[in-house]
Amino acid sequence: MENGSKVDSPTNISLANNDVVFSMIEYKAISVFLVLLICGVGIIGNIMVVLVVFITRDMRTPTNCYLVSLAVADLMVLVAAGLPNVTDSLAGTWIYGHAGCLSITYFQYLGINASSCSITAFTVERYIAICHPMKAQTVCTVSRAKRIIAIVWVFTCIYCMMWFFLVDIQVNKTQQVECGYKVSRNLYLPIYLTDFTIFYVIPLFVATILYGLIGRILFLSPIPSHPDSTMERWREKSSKEKNAAEADGNKMNNRSRPRGALSSRKQVTKMLAVVVVLFALLWMPYRTLVLVNSFMENPYLDPWFLLFCRICVYANSAINPVIYNLMSQKFRTAFKRLCKCGQVDTQRRSIYLTTTSYSMVRDNANTRVEKKEKPPPDNPTVVPKQAEKPRVEGELYYSVV
């Protein structure tokens, strides 16, 4: 296997088999620290994304379904690509064996390709939801999103199966075990170019066109009327039988709803556009490096630049939950609610005990009042004057407790 093919995978970018790099304690310390930090933050953040969408009923939207798919793919990249690099740097050799080499490389590319397809899917979904709102009522649904996600993962699973036949463990000149490609550079080049085109160039091309159309509709021209707002206006007209005060209040609320919906859609679109831009920028160093090295006789293998490329790849998989928290009020509230889950349970228990105590005290007070009250006289027109005093005592008893 030629050296030029050793930089075509996130695993091999670690360069654990390079004696010069392995002897650099400074390089090892910095690389291990950065990878552990980014992977730790990314794993926790993506797990939280999955949990809040599954737990919170209001978060189960078509867009969030695609974000869950993206979070699962990013988790796969961080676990299959990031963590093995740490062991490579510390041990200086491949410790996962032949099965580990095959499965880890497979899951690396599965996560990378599934994340790219998930980004394309929610870009198309946003375009339909904003530019074709009538069609979105039947197309942009949670059930359809789940089917599309299933198709995406089935396609990427089948596509990435070729990596089972392209990698193997080997022993290098320094008698160290490494996981690398068992095909020549010439055979791998068309495979890489196909992968590069399908999962990087095409998604960015589609995203550029669709977000341009979305921006023209959402920011430069009035947004098309939404069926929900039309129904609200129809209901508004049919409710003229109500009094004037209620009608004025309903008109004010209905005027604010379209503005709130427009603001919410702008916020979601901006957030997803930032995700796409970061995907393009953070993957560009690695994609450019491999593309250039594929056509060079002497590949560029500077260890610090390779570390930078690797960190950018892991940062792309770790930064999305941070973007959701910064740019989405719903995700931020859901994250806070998830972090305070234990405190909420304690508060609910205390509220339940307080309510129970209130009910018991109120019942006791009412019982005492009933005992102290005398039966009314036979003449129904005569009202006893002292009938209300025991009730006041009962209320005072409750307020003191």
From TrEMBL:
Keywords: Cell membrane, Disulfide bond, G-protein coupled receptor, Glycoprotein, Membrane, Receptor, Transducer, Transmembrane, Transmembrane helix. InterPro entries: GPCR_Rhodpsn, GPCR_Rhodpsn_7TM, TRH_rcpt_1. It is a multi-pass membrane protein. SMART domains: 7TM_GPCR_Srsx (SM01381). Residues 45-324 form the G-protein coupled receptors family 1 profile domain. Pfam families: 7tm_1 (PF00001). Residues 230-249 have a biased composition (Basic and acidic residues). It comes from the Eukaryota. CDD domains: 7tmA_TRH-R. The chain crosses the membrane at residues 29-54, 66-86, 106-128, 148-167, 187-214, 267-284, 304-327. It is found in: Cell membrane. One of its GO terms (cellular component) is plasma membrane. Receptor for thyrotropin-releasing hormone (TRH). Upon ligand binding, this G-protein-coupled receptor triggers activation of the phosphatidylinositol (IP3)-calcium-protein kinase C (PKC) pathway. This is Thyrotropin-releasing hormone receptor. It comes from Aquarana catesbeiana.
